[in-house]
Amino acid sequence: MSFPLYAPAEEHDMLRETVRALADEKIAPHAAAADENEEFSWDVYKALVAADLHAVHVPEQYGGAGADALATVIVIEEVARACASTSLIPAVNKLGTVPLLLSASEELKMRYLKPMARGEAMFSYALSEPEAGSDAASMRTRAVADGDSYVLNGTKMWITNAGVSEYYTVMAVTDPSAGARGISAFVVEKSDEGVSFGPKERKLGIKGSPTRQVIMDNVRIPADRMIGAPGTGFKTALATLDHTRITIAAQALGIAQGALDYAIGYVKERKQFGRPVADFQGVQFMLADMAMKLEAARQLTYHAAAKSERAMNGEPQKDLTFLSSAAKCAASDAAMEITTDAVQLLGGYGYTKDFPVERMMRDAKITQIYEGTNQIQRMVMARQLLK
Ligand code: CAA
Ligand code: FAD
Fold it and tell me: For residue 369, how far is its CA from the centre of ligand 2 (angstroms)?
């Protein structure tokens, strides 16, 4: 009899210690400035590359670290504990390239995964459009075959790391009469003629990660940049999200852990009524609830990661779609509650930019929205239950 093993192995615990040390030393000191200045930090990117943590999921045969799904979650979690914006580097590098890992030719994988593994290029994932967010299949971006090329026209909206990424996995309609089965996936390069970017969106949180439109105006690319067969792009896009909603759960866990750790340190120091506020049972019960919600979400996320790893290794997991949506939903809802409570535990100081918990609360909010809103996650879960 075999049981699904998802408890972290010793190697995973060691990895966590290594990433936490690097994050405390090289990432946390930049977090407030990245938020304040709304700037992507190339110094932090270089620190991640130097430690080979920028795209840990890339298999060894493509020059990567070959981290399994749980190790990737742990890396994202620990980076997010220090800086949520920075955690989108390993997370979105994975999001942009899972379509290739699932469906691309060996040649395409070699061509695009190797430079990313070397730290020379980042990947973004371009599914959403101004009029097609939750209803992603209603996209309008067109890719028209022309000899040995495809010509792409359209605007992708909200693309994380747009402008700083060299490569983009773009979903586009190749057969308008076929609905979701008429969508194909392509690799588009930043340097392709006709690619441009909208201005940086002015956001509530994750301000150190640029979010921009990717605009394609008669972008001609070789036909061999299609990922998989024509018409399979939407399935590949959704199959990808089954793996990567788990990384957004990881980001949420990290943000929440950062806020909880900070709040625990604070309440032990802050004195009111002649004693540390940590002595009050009202405060203690809040901390207990925060830690309980966090640990429940973490176990669900790790369980989903174990399933993701098995699926990537060719063992289809029928409950992966449910579990990845459940993990993303549970972890992001927990992160919103925990970061809000952390602000509460710091009182008026928590509401100021002199302390990091208000940034964490703002950063947590996006995890309930992207890679599918939590309403969409609930819809995905319900469909799985009822089918
Ligand atoms: N894996 C593979 N294929 C799947 C699938 C999955 N998990 N789920 C559905 N499919 C297939 C279906 O079988 C169907 O194919 P057939 O017609 O061949 O059977 C096809 O995909 C269409 O499926 P649905 O009819 O279920 O599709 P739908 O139009 O009802 O939409 C949806 C489904 C769940 C709402 C989907 O559109 C969705 O997830 N929307 C949310 C969008 C989203 O998550 N965007 C994330 C953008 S990335 C991002 O935000 C980045 C970031 O965080 C940094
Ligand atoms: P809408 O779809 O317009 O939703 C509006 C509201 O209606 C939401 O509350 C939603 O939950 C609700 N709703 C919609 N349909 C239903 C339904 N059937 N049942 C119940 N409620 C429903 N996309 C990418 O492709 N790549 C990226 O890198 C990327 N990064 C992002 C980064 C940021 C900072 C942001 C804000 C977004 C990013 N996105 C990205 C897009 C993101 O995935 C979408 O914003 C998200 O899927 C929601 O789409 P929408 O914003 O159009 O909202």
Answer: 6
Reduced to 3 states (helix: H, G, I; strand: E, B; else coil), residue 53 is coil
Q: What is the mean pLDDT of residues 329-338?
A: 98
What is the average pLDDT score of the chain?
97
Distance CA 87, CA 160 (A): 12
pLDDT score of 164 more than 70: yes
Distance, in Å, from the CA atom of 367 to the CA atom of 374, rounded to the nearest integer, reads 9
Q: What ligand 1 atom has the least distance to the C-alpha of 138? A: 29
Q: Is 371 designated active site?
A: yes
Give the residue among 214, 207, 250, 327 at the shortest CA–CA distance from 94.
Answer: 250
Residue 8 predicted with pLDDT over 90? no
Which residues, in sequence order, are CB contacts of 344 under 8 Å at separation 6+?
A: 286, 350
Q: To 10 degrees, what angle do helices 281-312 and 69-82 make?
A: 140
Half-sphere exposure of 315 (CA within 13 A, CB side): 7
Give the pTM: 0.98
Q: Rounded to a whole number, what is the distance in angstroms from the first to the last CA of the chain?
A: 28
Residue 262: is it exposed, middle or buried by C-beta count within 10 angstroms (0-12/13-18/19+)?
Answer: buried
